[in-house]
Amino acid sequence: MTDDVAKTNGTNPAQSKAAAKGAAAVKWADDRLGLASSNKKMIRKVFPDHWSFMLGEIALWSFVVLLVTGVFLTFWFVPSMAEIQYQGSYDQLRGVEMSQAYATSLDISFDVRGGLLLRQMHHWAAMLFIAAMLIHMMRVFVTGAFRKPREVNWLIGGVLILLGVVEGFAGYSLPDDLLSGTGLRIADGLIKATPLVGTYMSFFMFDGEFPGEAIIPRLYTVHVLLIPGLLLALIAAHMLLIVYHKHTQWAGPGKTEENVVGYPMMPVYAAKAGGFFFIVFGVTALMGGLLSINPIWKYGPYDPSKVTAGSQPDWYMGIAEGLLRIMPGWETHLFGTTLSWNIFLPGQVAPMALLALILAWPFLEAWVTGDKREHHLLDRPRNAPTRTAFLAAMVTVYGLLWAAGGNDIIATQFHMNMEHITWFMRAAVFVVPVIVFMIAKRWCIALQRHDNETLLHGYETGIIMRSAEGGYSERHLPISEEKAFALTARERDEVLPPASKTDADGVADKGYRVQELRSKLSSFMYADNVQKPTAAELEEGHHHAEHEHELEAGLDHAADGHQFDGHHSVSDETLRH
Ligand code: HEM
Ligand code: HEM
């Protein structure tokens, strides 16, 4: 800054005076806030470029849209369950007794200018927020971006997704229409199913018997203050950790575990990210303007004696719904109380167990491999077949439960028996993910093999050559150095040797069982993987290719300009890996 001022000093006195004033102001602020030095670093912060890094940003910007539209909604929404008579402009409900929360939600939809747009934008942004988080989480998982040093950010992410879902559910409950109340009724059932303390918890939450008068004002505080505050704090921590760790990158020439290659924050990345905010805002505005969502006027106010046909929860609740629908009606009666496993297991235990398993995966992987190094280069999904297959299995569980949540719709649309669908789903959620796991794992391994083929023998050109003897063969050409580098920029997987019952001195090893489990998991996870070719194999591959080249020398013209240059198909740099 002072350098710039000195330069201007020499040129124009009027300008230099203004610049000196500006510098003084900046110095004043910097002395107190220390921003200049930290900003200097931030400005030069490098961010690698890949489309998949956009997913976290979609989550971020849709959260901003939620904050902005949510604040507007608070101007008109009254979170009260006090009964009033609706007198707004929606004819079909005029004169109906309803809560003030429902009446003001109707007002926002019909009588506040732009209100429906904002309500719908808010709701679409909520859908997008959770979808973006989930897909972002999958990309982090499948590329191994959760490895050291990013495990804490992975766990923060886990809390973010959980809070996001609860926040969405709380929002969905606020308008107090029939769908809201039906959702709350399910939540009440889930809470009551907690063994021993369930009823007390429900009474505590609803301030007495369901539905009571307290739930909407309470959910309102949770929805506009508590959870947004927590989300904001955690997102800030998430971002700070990304800056601190630096972003991961894909392997390629010049990109190592020690550097980050990409665009600087200023001006490129800031402009890109800033522009992206407007795209996300624009898309949600378009959706809010054009696509109807949650038409709360359709079913009327909440009435515990009514249920709606055809009501659907928001998409992210689909799996909870599916779990509840396929669970057999198990109950235990003990000392005059009923333990409702039919609700407790699918409603609380199963979703939490699934989330815990996914969140624990990085730690499980690190324990099995014993790898304590930092990783800044991403794994190609195929190079971690077990991890990728596990994700495929989880997505399958999710999809099946989602379908199970719509078993009534499947039954009516496809003229099927609902009982049959339920029975099918009960078996399918255990069997199909295992099959998917096996297929996905073999698929990854096949792709690894394909990579090795390409490295050793070049890529298939589709050009069929006829030899002097009359035989046909396909022409292969070497891949570029960049590609060869990227393909070989991975490590060999090590499989732990079987555990031994005694240590080196023949004394029984106490940790034997744990070591045995670890080595079994290690061979389950890594033994079938195809390792990248060794330097010697690559060398041999290219000699072989050269030999072929000599044989084919006279027939070379068809390969439209590509020179077969065996020496360069595998560079020295590649061999280093
Ligand atoms: C409110 C929700 C979230 C927001 C706003 C958010 C935002 C971001 C952004 C902008 C990035 C950098 C760009 C990118 O890699 O996409 C990032 C990276 C990351 N996020 Fe999130 N995220 C959220 C939720 C999650 C969740 C649910 C998880 C996982 C459970 C997660 C784990 C991570 C990790 C491990 C990184 C570092 C990845 C790397 O350096 O390659 N995040 N997040
Ligand atoms: C992650 C953040 C958020 C999510 C996922 C979310 C989700 C939702 C959803 C799904 C609804 C139901 C909308 C409908 O009636 O169709 C809703 C309603 C509402 N939200 Fe949010 N919201 C979030 C943040 C906020 C914030 C930060 C505020 C205010 C500061 C807010 C204020 C409201 C209000 C006042 C309503 C009731 C309006 C109405 O339904 O008529 N929300 N929210």
From TrEMBL:
Keywords: Cell membrane, Electron transport, Heme, Iron, Membrane, Metal-binding, Respiratory chain, Translocase, Transmembrane, Transmembrane helix, Transport. One of its GO terms (molecular function) is quinol-cytochrome-c reductase activity. It is an enzyme of class 7 (translocase). Gene3D superfamilies: Cytochrome Bc1 Complex, Chain C (1.20.810.10). The chain crosses the membrane at residues 51-78, 124-142, 154-174, 220-244, 275-297, 349-368, 389-411, 423-440. It holds the Pfam family Cytochrom_B_N_2. It catalyses: a quinol + 2 Fe(III)-[cytochrome c](out) = a quinone + 2 Fe(II)-[cytochrome c](out) + 2 H(+)(out). Its cofactor is heme. It is found in: Cell membrane. One of its GO terms (biological process) is respiratory electron transport chain. GO terms for cellular component: plasma membrane. Residues 25-251 form the Cytochrome b/b6 N-terminal region profile domain. Its main location: membrane. Its EC number is 7.1.1.8. This is Cytochrome bc1 complex cytochrome b subunit.
